[in-house]
Design a protein that fits this description.
The structure is a homodimer of 317-residue chains. By secondary structure, chain A is an alpha/beta fold. Chain A folds into three domains: 83 residues, Winged helix-like DNA-binding domain superfamily/Winged helix DNA-binding domain (Arc Repressor Mutant, subunit A, Orthogonal Bundle); 105 residues, Periplasmic binding protein-like II (D-Maltodextrin-Binding Protein, domain 2); 103 residues, Periplasmic binding protein-like II (D-Maltodextrin-Binding Protein, domain 2, 3-Layer(aba) Sandwich). Chain A is built from ten helices and 14 strands. In chain A, the strands form four sheets. A five-stranded mixed β-sheet of chain A has the order 4-3-5-14-6, covered by helices on one side. In chain A, strands 11-8-12-7-13 form a five-stranded mixed β-sheet. Chain A has a two-stranded antiparallel sheet with strand order 1-2. In chain A, strand 3, helix 5 and strand 4 form a beta-alpha-beta unit. The longest helix of chain A is centred in the first third of the chain and has 26 residues. Chain A is elongated. The N and C termini of chain A lie far apart (55 Å). The mean pLDDT of chain A is 86. Chain A binds a DNA duplex (30 and 30 nucleotides) through helix 3.
Chain lengths: 317, 317
DNA sequence: ACTCATTAGTGCCATAACGGCAACAATAGA
DNA sequence: TCTATTGTTGCCGTTATGGCACTAATGAGT
């Protein structure tokens, strides 16, 4: 193992905050990281990290070396990228992350065909509803709703996602169908509560064209869309969710879009996020495959909602 | 061995023009280079070189990869440089090249003291009168007379070198002392003939201030200054040489500066040449040590030529 | 066209480096 | 004070490296 790889290990230790986590990330023993770090410092003749068993700090040399190592990593990935540009067939590992539903419904179904077309590509799909470190954990693509939080990442739109408000027929029988926002606000709600966001207010556009936030009376929270739908189907709450969460519930009559007359603002787009320009071919091809699967005009999930175009004040595309 | 080192091997093959020469440079078996190159191509999934047993050509990918590899090499050396800046003591190998006389007379004598001061520095001094590839052969410093041929190299002046015309007393007894350039031109001459330059004409500045080249009647050529002096001491030829070649011959009376009244132009400076800015500490320190040894005003070799300041129309410093 | 010196490639094998395991010391939080 | 976790290091099995020997290819010289 030579100096560049050792520098990459060093960089990962710094970025992950511990040798142990860097080792876990690399799927190697902690001793490997410890020994290679020691060797690096010996080779360079300078201490990079002051470390104890629970923490470390960068030396001045280490801080400067971190910058250099980042440049090296970028350059190395550009180098590999150059080679990949000459590949007749895409190859290598494609490491993807997305939220649970996104992954199961809209990514997983694409993979088999994709791998038939490109048998030399290995795909790893990890469903993470938490905020992940896309760069640090080595993802090629991350599928997300909303803009990325890290401005160093690049986001490319995949599809629009629009909200709708759902209730079960039994819920309506029990509470009556609400006609105004005020009436809705009094009803029990199931809301999404993920690591990074909670939807505890409903935004709508009033008659004057202003965005108004109305608190929802939360009786249930979950970080999984399917859990939310299950609660709503049980007839004990309504929910406001993006359309991609809906499967065939509306078609089957298990769920009914309610308050269709109100004007909801456009929700965040679904994006693909990745670390830097110049996607490997396999990433670009997979992105294209998912986009084709979802549909570039009307997303596939909107086909599960008859008449969706006319609801909630949506403008036709 | 991982990808960076393999890329460095690839680059060296390209720069050296053959696997065999790259192997020689690295002091490894040819099979090592062959195997690592093949591995690199396998890892990148692209052919970099089309090769036969006698030649190779770069593929398009290879050409692009060469550029990248050069950037990587530069970045790696900057990385090592950063570390070296933090060394409390200079350390590592200092690889030097110079011509034979330069090395023996003005570099070798500096090394012991230098290594007493900096015991962690290993010095390799190679005497090469041929043109060497400073970058390709991994030299830290090259000691040269005259400007470097490669504009990517940096030259820092070390000392002035001035010519003088020497003959033995016996030569003068045999041929008489020449009084004009024309008379000199008729006499047998020993001339320097290295790989890169031959001194077969004598330049002088005439009464009108113009540089005039006068052919020398060569009866002897050598690529070593000491060989030239030996021939001149034998009384069978005169020579025109830079002053640093002279040892104690003039003081002992074995050689006499002749034609002192003519005006010789300033000769090339002695330079230290190195590949790029940001010398490692040990290089800078060695440069300083040699400069101090030679003398920053009047070079040490001029002390072997009494009255040299007043000869050949030299302007005082 | 032939010969020859040199180069590139590859199988085999000894050696060195790598990576994992286990044990231990250090440490931060409870 | 205790405990869980982290970083370090000795030891050992595995893997990669590097060298040797051999072979095929090739360009220069005759």
């Amino acid at each position: 193992m030579d100096i560049t790889n050792k520098l990459m290990i060093f960089l990962e230790v710094v970025e992950q905050g511990s040798l142990a986590r860097a080792a876990e990330l690399r799927n190697v023993d902690r001793s490997v990281v410890s020994k290679q770090l020691n060797k690096l410092e010996e080779e360079l003749g300078v201490r990079l990290l002051n470390r104890s068993t629970r923490s470390f700090s960068l030396t001045a040399a280490g801080a400067e070396m971190v910058k250099k190592a980042k440049e090296l990593r970028l350059m190395l990935s550009e180098t590999v990228q150059i080679a990949e540009n000459y590949h007749s067939e895409p190859r290598g590992l494609l490491k993807l992350t997305s939220s649970s539903i996104l992954g199961k419904r809209y990514i997983q179904p694409v993979i088999n065909d994709f791998q038939k077309r490109f048998p030399q590509v290995e795909v790893e799909l990890r469903l993470e509803d938490r905020v992940v470190d896309i760069v640090g954990e080595g993802y090629d693509l991350a599928f997300r709703v909303g803009p990325p939080r890290d401005s160093n990442l690049i986001a490319r739109p995949l599809a629009r996602t629009r909200l709708l408000i759902l209730a079960a027929p039994e819920f309506i029988q029990t509470y009556g169908e609400p006609k105004t926002i005020e009436e809705l606000a009094e009803l029990p709600a199931a809301i999404y509560a993920g690591d990074s966001k909670k939807v505890h207010e409903l935004l709508h556009i009033d008659k004057n064209g202003k965005e108004v936030a109305t608190p929802m009376r939360s009786v249930y929270r979950a970080n999984d869309g399917e859990l939310l739908l299950a609660k709503v189907i049980s007839g004990t709450a309504y929910t406001a969710v993006p359309a991609f969460i809906v499967n065939d519930e509306i078609i089957k009559g298990s769920l009914i879009p309610i308050m269709q007359h109100i004007h909801l603002p456009e929700y965040h787009k679904m994006n693909v996020v990745y670390p830097h320009r110049g996607l490997p071919a396999r990433s670009q091809l997979f992105f294209d495959a998912v986009k084709e699967y979802i549909g570039s005009e009307i997303p596939i999930w909107e086909h599960n909602i008859p008449g969706f175009e006319k609801m909630y004040g949506h403008k036709p595309s």
